[in-house]
């Protein structure tokens, strides 16, 4: 943006200085930085021209980049940064020796890429990083992920996940360059147009895995549509009495739809019928996301929401509170 106030101008040494809209507070706590000094003008004698325009880089044009970089480098980011809502990748690398470098580029406009993440590490020390991307709701974006070993470097194992590795959305597992697109429906597509994770046509399933304790006949569970109160499935204690202690049961159930909220409840009447349980969300490609788990309990409830693109939010749980994404 070009700015003038009639007198005064950006000059040598001012680059990077802030352009501020003052707030009402005497402490400057509500001042707003809207630009950073980029250039000014000089006359024929190489003196700063003070009565004309100065050029500033507009902060909002790079806000996504600022958010991604701050979230990547911060252990405890400021509360007004959206680190908890940005989509992210998880990278795990191990190797024998030498240095490795990692970068992620994003397509800011057609054919124009900008680096948002750059980091390096010793292969022998390993690397486990969270790499923040741009907001999903701003539409389709293409990314290029690069991992390269130095002349003496050797990578033994590499894995790149969408989100937390716990949810098993593996995108890539080799060095070199990997190009992918996150579409505005949440699907992740590779350079050949193949859907790696998600997609609007995905059908969702629930899978409940239980390891029974000494009294399987004391355990019951149910899944209910939280809006309509429709029973998706219900299993009573009497139905579990046929199982032997320590038996494992895996149950797959249809009927889970995007853009819905569900309440999952599991009960163990006397606390000795259940060793552990895990509730997963699966799609038709067998990509799985762990959304609730527990061990010996009297009763636990988990309220979860699945949005239109398959992102899962655990809204309330008597056992744990977390947010994850699926796909």
Q: Which strand order does the major sheet show?
A: 7-6-9-12-13-14
Strand content: over 45%
Q: What is the terminal-to-terminal distance?
A: 39 Å
Structural class label: mainly beta
- Oligomeric status of the shown chains? single chain
Spans with pLDDT under 50 lasting ≥5 residues? Answer: 319-327
How many helices in DSSP terms? 2
Q: How much is the average pLDDT?
A: 78
User: What's the total count of β strands?
Assistant: 23
Number of individual domains: 3
N-to-C series of helices and strands: EEEEHEEEEEEEEEEEEEHEEEEEE
CATH topology annotation of the largest domain = Immunoglobulin-like
Protein name: Peptidase S1 domain-containing protein
Domain Peptidase S1: 1-71
Keywords: Virulence
GO molecular function: serine-type endopeptidase activity
Q: Key features?
A:
327 residues, mainly beta, Immunoglobulin-like, 3 domains, 6-stranded antiparallel sheet, 5-stranded antiparallel sheet, 23 strands, elongated, disordered C terminus, Peptidase S1 domain-containing protein, serine-type endopeptidase activity
Q: How are the secondary structure elements laid out?
A:
Blueprint: E1 2-3, E2 18-21, E3 32-39, E4 54-58, H1 63-73, E5 88-97, E6 99-109, E7 112-122, E8 127-132, E9 141-149, E10 154-162, E11 170-172, E12 176-182, E13 188-190, E14 195-197, E15 204-212, E16 219-225, E17 231-235, H2 237-240, E18 248-256, E19 260-268, E20 274-283, E21 288-295, E22 299-306, E23 312-317
Antiparallel strand pairs: 1-4, 2-3, 3-4, 5-8, 5-10, 6-7, 6-9, 9-12, 10-11, 12-13, 13-14, 15-18, 15-20, 16-17, 16-19, 19-22, 20-21, 22-23
């Amino acid at each position: 943006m070009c700015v003038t106030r009639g007198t005064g101008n950006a000059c040598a040494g001012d680059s990077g200085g802030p352009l501020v809209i003052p707030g009402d507070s005497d402490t400057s706590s509500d001042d707003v930085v809207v630009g950073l000094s980029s250039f000014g003008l000089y006359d024929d004698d190489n003196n700063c021209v003070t009565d004309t325009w100065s050029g500033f880089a507009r902060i909002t044009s790079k806000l996504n980049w600022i958010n991604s970089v701050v979230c990547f480098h911060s252990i405890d980011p400021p509360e007004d940064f959206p680190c908890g809502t940005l989509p992210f990748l998880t990278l795990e690398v191990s190797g024998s020796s030498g240095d490795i470098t990692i970068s992620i580029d994003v397509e800011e406009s057609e054919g124009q890429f900008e680096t948002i993440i750059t980091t390096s590490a010793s292969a022998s020390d390993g690397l486990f990083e969270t790499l923040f991307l741009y907001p999903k709701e701003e539409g389709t974006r293409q990314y290029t992920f690069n991992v390269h070993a130095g002349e003496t470097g050797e990578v033994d194992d590499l894995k790149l996940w969408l989100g937390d590795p716990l949810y098993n959305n593996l995108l890539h597992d080799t060095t070199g360059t990997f190009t992918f697109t996150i579409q505005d429906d949440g699907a992740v597509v590779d350079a050949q147009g193949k859907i790696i994770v998600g997609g609007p046509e995905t059908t969702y399933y629930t899978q409940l895995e239980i390891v029974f304790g000494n009294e399987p006949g004391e355990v019951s569970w149910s899944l209910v549509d939280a809006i309509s109160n429709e029973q998706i499935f219900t299993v009573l204690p009497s139905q579990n009495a046929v199982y032997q202690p320590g038996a494992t049961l895996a149950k797959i159930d249809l009927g889970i739809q995007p853009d819905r909220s569900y309440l999952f409840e599991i009960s163990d009447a006397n606390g000795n019928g259940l060793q552990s349980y895990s509730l997963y969300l699966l799609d038709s490609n067998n990509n799985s996301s762990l959304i609730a788990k527990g061990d010996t309990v009297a009763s636990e409830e988990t309220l979860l929401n699945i949005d239109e693109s398959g992102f899962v939010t655990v809204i309330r749980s008597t056992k744990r509170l977390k947010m994850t994404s699926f796909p």
